[in-house]
Amino acid sequence: MIILKCCSSGDEAYDDLSTDVAYMLNRKDLAYPVFFETGCLTRWEAAWSTICAEACLCLAKITGCNSQEESSALIKEGFDLLEVSAKTLKKKDGTIVNGMAHSYYSRILSKLENLSAPV
C-alpha cells in the first residue's frame, strides 16, 4: 500500500507520510513468518523483503528533501531488506531461484545505490 501511495502522490509528501516512514523504520519489531518471503515469491514472483525495500526506496525519495536523516535511515533499511532478498533469491551455489524476482530485486538495488550515492 505504501508503494501505491507514494506513486499516486507523484513522489510528493502525502497526509500520513510520517506514519508510513515510522512503520518502515520500526518493522524490525514485527516478526514476519518465513512463508511471507516464499509465499510472495510463488504468488507474485517477488520476495516480500524486496517489496518492503521498494517501499523504503519510495519513502526515501519523498523524505529526502525534508529530512536527510530519515531518508538515510530508509535507504539503510532498504539495503538490509535486500540482504534478506539476496538470501531468498539465490541458492548457496549462486544459482538464481526465480529470474523475474531477481530482476526486480536488481532494479530496486540499483535504484537504492543511485539514491545513496553522493551528489
Write the layout of secondary structure elements.
Layout: H1 2-8, H2 17-25, H3 34-44, H4 48-63, H5 68-89, H6 99-116
Helix pairs in contact: 1-4, 2-4, 4-5, 4-6, 5-6
Short synopsis of the structure:
Helix content is 70%, strand content 0%. The chain has 119 residues and is an all-alpha fold. The N and C termini lie far apart (30 Å).
List keywords for this structure.
mainly alpha; 6 helices; 119 residues
Tell me what the structure shows.
- The chain is mainly alpha-helical.
- It has 6 helices and no strands.
- Helix 1 runs parallel beside helix 4, helix 2 (17-25) crosses helix 4 and helix 4 (48-63) packs parallel to helix 6.
- The longest helix has 22 residues, at 68-89.
- The mean pLDDT is 89.
% residues in beta strands = under 5%
Rough shape?
globular
Q: What is the H/E order?
A: HHHHHH
Rg computed from alpha carbons, rounded to a whole number of angstroms = 14 Å
Class of secondary structure makeup: mainly alpha
Question: Low-confidence spans: pLDDT under 50, at least 5 residues?
Answer: none
Q: Name the quaternary structure.
A: single chain
Helix percentage: 55-70%
Main sheet: strands, sense, barrel: none
Mean pLDDT: 89
